[in-house]
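Thread: "does anyone have the structure for this chain?"

Original post by V.I.:
We have the sequence but no experimental structure in hand. Need at least a predicted one for the grant figures.
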Amino acid sequence: MIERETLINFYNLYSKEIFNYCYHLTGVYEAAEDVLQDCFINLIEYSKKNVINSKTVKSFLYKTAHNLAINYLKKNDKIFYLDDDNNYSSVDTIAETIANEEMNNEILVAIQNLDAKTRSIFILKRDNNYTNEEIAKILNISERTVRRKLQQALSHIMVHLKNKGFYDIL
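Reply from O.Q.:
Generated one for you, tokens below.
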């Protein structure tokens, strides 16, 4: 079984990152907390029967978080909007600020409408700056699938923005 100090070390290393991932995937703060807690409970349970490899524990936690978050979404039929964690460059006028906020809101709507796997890949890339290879390992899929899903996400977002009248960015 995993030692207490090792578990605390893993928690300190990965909890914030896993929480952010869960929060962006579920859109519900309390659900993200619950999923994070369940991830570490699953790690403890897994360690009772298996040796924990410190090189793969991050992938284990992400995969567990992904599955638990998807189960939460399915169970609760959740439709949600992601928080705005992106910082835009400073703007000089109120009109530009409003236009940027409107565009960002439409981007969030477009992301919300992606399927769960594509949304998950997009969030890992955008929020955590993971490489395609890292995302593939975390989600146990091919790099080709990651590239394809990222392209689908970007195309979907661009079409959505164009349909909402944001022609100057295309």
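V.I.: this helps a lot. The chain has two domains: 4-76, 94-169.
O.Q.: and Residues 79-93 have pLDDT under 50 and may be disordered.
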